[in-house]
Amino acid sequence: MIAIDGTHSTRRSLHVGTIPPPWPYDAAAVATVEQTVVHTQVSDCQDKSFLRSCVIRFLKADDIDALEELNELVLNHLPHPHILRRASRAELEIHINRRGRCIGAFVDKLMVGFSVLTCPRDDPDNLGHDLGFDHARRLRSCHFELSGVHPSFRGSNLHRIMNAMRANFAGASGYHYLFGTVSPLNPYSLGNHLAQGMTIRKLVTKYEGMDRYIIHRHYHERLLPPSTMTSATYRSCQDIAGQKHLLDKGYWGIGLRRTESRDWEVAYVPSSSIIFETASIPA
Ligand SMILES: CC(C)(COP(=O)(O)OP(=O)(O)OC[C@H]1O[C@@H](n2cnc3c(N)ncnc32)[C@H](O)[C@@H]1OP(=O)(O)O)[C@@H](O)C(=O)NCCC(=O)NCCS
């Protein structure tokens, strides 16, 4: 275990070397996922009609300088410092290939997007604790951790593409319980995660005073289009107490909408009304 200088002078201790997993898994299938290269096109925010080729792939150890640079750039452009917690270079290095995996998007040689998947195993930061998961399920939990897109290249779905790639890696490796934390101040990230099947399960304070939704889904479960959306209860993302009240009553957040007054509201429904479809689990 090593100590990492974390957010706002906290010291976080993280296990390293937790991949590969300790259970039997298909190493060839994982290797295939890791070699995935996605080719897409991104538009530059300055000129939406000008499309540029973008390559998305899993990062290697020598991508650390580019990753640190993009992370700093994203942090320096946040409208509010609580939207993304600050990660040190040492923590980013660990995420690239020891505690997890990291995905990067490149336009020519410039990194324009990154996304971290991390497998906390027995570490105290395992989000399974927040949902009362037992040890066996916590071991198989993983986090969609940090991510960011270069401000000039937003709006081309890079976040969703990288989310799909990190979910594929987690699923192939047997880390089936997908978690993440998102700030209520961050509707763009939240909307992407909810659209990809995550649900809001809790609203807590993390990282020394930052409000965070705990979002979760099981890799093999798909949320069916809810017939209950019209009867959903909507709460403003800024209404922390109101949302906590609903979550405590057993509601889950499943959608996001923007009101005419440009507020962002989460759609909450009773968890008992949510229907999941279970995809077949490979032997
Ligand atoms: C969240 C984030 C990664 C999404 O980036 P992305 O994949 O490029 O975003 P999308 O393609 O989903 O964008 C969809 C729309 O939202 C807009 N948008 C995305 N992020 C935005 C932001 N931070 N501020 C304002 N508008 C934003 C896009 O311009 C696009 O608008 P359009 O449809 O009119 O073109 C990016 O906003 C970001 O890096 N934010 C700062 C760091 C962060 O929040 N990380 C996630 C922590 S959980």
Summarize the structure.
24% of the residues lie in helices and 36% in strands.
Mind sketching the topology for me?
Blueprint: E1 2-5, E2 11-14, H1 27-34, E3 37-44, E4 47-58, H2 64-76, H3 89-97, E5 100-107, E6 110-118, H4 135-139, E7 141-149, H5 158-173, E8 177-182, H6 187-195, E9 199-206, E10 210-218, E11 221-223, E12 233-236, H7 240-248, E13 251-258, E14 264-270, E15 276-278
Parallel strand pairs: 7-8
Antiparallel strand pairs: 1-2, 3-4, 4-5, 5-6, 6-7, 8-10, 9-10, 11-15, 12-14, 13-14
Helix pairs in contact: 1-5
Please tell me the total number of domains: 1
The class by helix and strand makeup works out as alpha+beta
CATH topology tier name: Aminopeptidase
Strand content: 35-45%
Could you say what the CATH architecture is? 3-Layer(aba) Sandwich
> Ends: how far apart?
33 Å
Tell me the CATH superfamily: Gcn5-related N-acetyltransferase (GNAT)
> Low-confidence parts, pLDDT < 50 over ≥5 residues?
1-11
Total number of beta strands: 15
Oligomer: single chain
Global outline = globular
CATH class: Alpha Beta
* Order of helical and strand elements: EEHEEHHEEHEHEHEEEEHEEE
In the sheet with the most strands, the strands line up as 3-4-5-6-7-8-10-9
The helix tally amounts to 7
What bound compounds does this protein have?
Answer: coenzyme A
- Profile the largest sheet: 8 strands, mixed
Question: Rounded to an integer, what's the Rg over CA atoms?
Answer: 18 Å
